[in-house]
From TrEMBL, chain A:
This is 3-phenylpropionate/trans-cinnamate dioxygenase ferredoxin subunit. One of its GO terms (molecular function) is monooxygenase activity. The keyword Oxidoreductase applies. Residues 4-115 form the Rieske domain. It comes from Kribbella pratensis. The keyword Cell membrane does not apply. InterPro entries: Rieske_2Fe-2S (IPR017941), Rieske_2Fe-2S_sf (IPR036922). It holds the Pfam family Rieske. The lineage of its organism: Bacteria, Bacillati, Actinomycetota, Actinomycetes, Propionibacteriales. PANTHER family: 3-PHENYLPROPIONATE_CINNAMIC ACID DIOXYGENASE FERREDOXIN SUBUNIT (PTHR21496:SF23), FERREDOXIN-RELATED (PTHR21496). Keywords: 2Fe-2S, Dioxygenase, Iron, Iron-sulfur, Metal-binding, Oxidoreductase. PROSITE patterns: RIESKE.
TrEMBL record, chain B:
The keyword Secreted does not apply. The lineage of its organism: Bacteria, Bacillati, Actinomycetota, Actinomycetes, Propionibacteriales. It comes from the Bacteria. One of its GO terms (molecular function) is hydrolase activity. It comes from Kribbella pratensis. Coiled coil: none annotated. Residues 22-363 form the Amidohydrolase-related domain. Keywords: Lyase. It holds the Pfam family Amidohydro_2. This is Amidohydrolase-related domain-containing protein. GO terms for biological process: secondary metabolic process. GO terms for cellular component: cytoplasm. InterPro entries: ACMSD (IPR032465), Amidohydro-rel (IPR006680), Metal_Hydrolase (IPR032466).
């Protein structure tokens, strides 16, 4: 695994991101509440530049007019079709019925990581059929490092 | 005097022995005066003193060519105003188990909520006493004063006390989309009573038939009927009506169905990207539509290649949605067998002829 220094810590404040070109790939490095994550800037649905989308939360509801807004800042929405992905895992979060068909097994650490997220399970979410490519990120003193 | 049957208008031989429920049969009020026995004096005088005319629906102009079955008009009054003709031309020759009546009298065009409520009640009492109580094959659809959803819900509750009513109807061209929360008292009452909410083609809300304004010709009005239905189905789903009222069924009446598969494709696709706006829609919209929406089959779109229509029916991905209808006294087919699509399987035909209606109309018995 090769380490790539992609930014100084100051460059990516909480809620911010930096899209970098390393190893012939466009990769978005995100700071979500102090934790750093890297996902490929390529939407697994239609190939859109996923990391250029809006970061937001997930909205769910048990009846019309009720909004349960969770995971604020932890979700990226692809700018092309608005599909929602969790930044930490690259997992898509719409269309839970389709997960019954395990159509895209290429996902990185999808199921296990998700099953461990108590906030999502409590909200009744199940993983969607797509997941984006994620990379290991570490902070070495003042630098953000992506492992590929 | 025995009523003479209409030519080529009777149950086809190949349907022998099968139950048949006609989910769209029209009755028409000859004139406002026919409601006087069912109206309070205050409203009788109001109508007389103001010189108020009748409120016939304009969806089928009475003299437009080829819209009505030949000889379906009685000696006096409009087509669909004679029980005797209805029995002799439809109920008997088609051997109907049930006929679900619809009345498109334009209560929705009135701007006075109180008058609308009084006329809707009178119209429903007229339907009950002069039709439903006269032939036990007939089942009713109560017309609602949609102007005021609270009044409309009260009318549904009144109709619920009479077992002959199986449905409440609202016009497809309503003043605003029917899923909006202001209308929910109606759906609350309908669900509680086991009524289907029938969305009847037409309406005199003041909104044009198209989103780009008023067209010039009647043919445009007539061909554009599905536009309003598409909007209404989207509204019912996105507003979460079926989340709030999970037992509710909506029947589109005379709206066609060949437009539905592509609408569902588009709706599902865009929901995936926009679902966060309507998070209570937790399932693909097409699934919600298949579970809650039923469609009367006349008028049937008839491509020159019959197989195309079979493809569309396949694309619905449901055998439960379509319900047989003649739309009497409106003329939609030259031969009776053409009332159903050519080439459908025997199992699907049975469901369309009666099974789906029985599964949809919980009060039908």
């Amino acid at each position: 695994m090769t380490k790539y220094v992609v930014a100084t810590v100051d460059e990516i404040a909480p809620g911010q991101r930096k899209v970098v070109e390393i190893a012939n790939r466009s990769i978005g490095v995100f700071n979500v509440k102090g934790n750093y994550y890297a996902i490929r800037n390529l939407c697994p649905h239609g190939g859109g530049p996923m990391c250029e989308g809006v970061t937001s939360g997930l909205v769910r509801s048990d009846r019309p007019g009720n909004y349960d807004y969770i995971m604020r800042g932890e979700i990226i929405r692809c700018p092309w079709h608005g599909w929602e992905f969790e930044i930490a895992t690259g997992q898509s979060w719409f269309d839970p019925a389709k997960t019954k068909v395990k159509a895209y097994p290429a996902g990185v650490e999808s199921g296990e990581t998700l099953a461990k997220n108590p906030e999502l399970s409590a909200a009744g979410f199940q993983p969607g059929p797509y997941s984006g490519e994620t990379y290991e990120v570490e902070v070495d003193r003042d630098y953000v490092i992506v492992n590929i | 005097m025995a009523v003479q049957q209409l030519e080529n208008y009777a149950r086809p031989e190949q349907w022998t022995g099968l139950e048949l429920v006609d989910t769209d049969v029209h009755i028409n009020l000859p004139g406002l005066k026919n409601l006087f026995p069912y109206l309070e004096a205050r409203w009788r005088d109001y109508i007389t003193e103001s010189g108020m005319g009748g409120l016939p629906s304009d969806l089928y102009p009475s003299n437009a060519p080829n819209l009505f079955l030949d000889r379906s008009r009685p000696e006096q009054g409009p087509a669909g105003s004679s029980l005797e003709l209805l029995q002799g031309q439809l109920l008997d020759p088609w051997q109907l188990q049930y006929a679900i009546l619809n009345c498109t009298y334009a209560i929705d065009s009135i701007h006075n909520d109180d008058l609308a409520a009084a006329l809707a009640r009178a119209l429903n009492r007229w339907q009950l006493h002069e039709w439903l109580e006269q032939d036990d094959r007939l089942r009713g659809s109560a017309v609602l004063p949609l102007q005021n959803p609270a009044f409309a819900a009260k009318e549904a509750e009144w109709a619920a006390e009479h077992s002959q009513f199986v449905q409440v109807t609202v016009p497809s061209r309503s003043r605003e989309p029917l899923g909006r929360r202001g209308f929910w008292p109606i759906y609350q009452a309908a669900q509680a009573a086991g009524f289907v909410v029938g969305v009847q083609a037409g309406g005199s809300s003041g909104n044009p038939v198209t989103p780009v304004g008023w067209p010039t010709y009647f043919v445009e009005d007539y061909v554009n009927v599905p536009l309003a239905f598409q909007t209404q189905l989207m509204s019912f789903v996105t507003e979460g009506v079926f989340v709030e009222f999970p037992e509710l069924k909506v029947a589109t009446i005379e709206g066609g169905f060949s437009w539905l598969p592509p609408l569902m494709w588009r709706f599902d696709k865009d929901w995936k990207g926009l679902r966060r706006e309507v998070p209570w829609v937790e399932r693909p919209p097409s699934e919600v539509i298949r579970d809650h929406v039923r469609m009367t089959i006349a008028p049937l779109d008839r491509p020159d290649t019959p197989e195309y229509l079979l493809d569309v029916i396949d694309q619905l991905l449901s055998d439960d949605m379509l319900m047989f209808s003649t739309d009497y006294p409106h003329a939609h087919f030259a031969n009776s067998a053409d009332a159903l699509p050519d080439g459908i399987s025997g199992e699907l035909r049975t469901k369309i002829m009666s099974g789906n209606a029985h599964a949809t109309y919980r009060r039908l018995s």
